[in-house]
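Reopening closed ticket. The problem is back. First fold of the pair:
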Amino acid sequence: MNPFVFLLPLLMLKGLNADHQTITTMKITIGNTVFTATLVDNPTAAELKKRLPFTITMTELNGNEKYYSFRESFPARASNPRMIENGDLMLYGDDTLVLFYKSFSTSYSYTRLGRIDNPKGLAEALGRGEVVVKFEIH
């Protein structure tokens, strides 16, 4: 029997999750360090994906996040996640991209964009103060 017959269904599912939604991964480069992030399936993340690739200078805030405010707004549907996790990628308001590098509880509302798959070393890569970050499709 041809082994390709068994692999064909698996190859067809590549890039789909259990709900048959397309999974989009993004490469985030900070200096010489590269992280992979998985975007959620919502209109905000779809708009972010349309704008890729881009390189931005992100600003430090509160010792737990870096942010960048775009000139153009995104479709937003904010809610309170209650808990922010290291590696979360969110939109604050309708124009501010936020990359969190520490976990903490929050009372603020965000629109979820995705998260870094393995955030180990993220805080060290982001460092203190402003940082240049490149976002692109993976």
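Second fold of the pair, where the issue appears:
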Amino acid sequence: MPQTADGVGNVGNARGSRQAEQRHDDNGEQNSENTRHVGNPLFKVGRMLKQRKLILAAVAAAVLAIATTALLTAGTAAPAVTFVSIKGEKIATADLHGKVVLVNFWATDCVVCVKEMPQIVATYNKFHAQGFETIAVAMRHDPPNYVLAYVAQNKLPFKVALDPMGELARAFGDVKLTPTTFIIDRQGRIIKRIVGEVDFADLHAVLEEKLRVS
């Protein structure tokens, strides 16, 4: 016998009810499973161990970064590079052996660099006669005409070099931040790396100690 319209509707409603009940049962089972996991002590321990592994991995990465910086700065030889001054003079690091050298990476648009430059000048004037040299390296983004104008206006007494290809910054550990300052001893070893504003009282103490060593 053919189904009436009401019969088709009843069959459809029954089928929809069974599907809804099945979805409800599935969701109930899933929620029950999740509840069992959350309440399970082993599940909690596993989650804690996973979080601990993530923390340890982050700590290990930080330690590695610090160790890499230490390897660059703790008594390692200064890179074998040649500075070219704004006057065209060439100064190789090998030519500086026997002197204590400050290499300062700076830029004319760096507020801290400009702020501390008078003290770098005063430090150079104080220690130069004892065998101290200073080389200020302008970062590659700094327009040469800005550098030339700043040097002339402020009468910088030491060598100022340009780094148009960024080669000097890469050689000194891929310098990105300014100011970044390196102190090199008479044997050509990096003894200090300073990122940010220099503590000049500390710097002068280091220079006095290193300049006493022949």
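Update: turned out to be a display glitch only; the data is intact. The beta strands are 82-84, 90-92, 100-106, 132-138, 159-162, 180-184, 190-195. The mean pLDDT is 81. Please close again.
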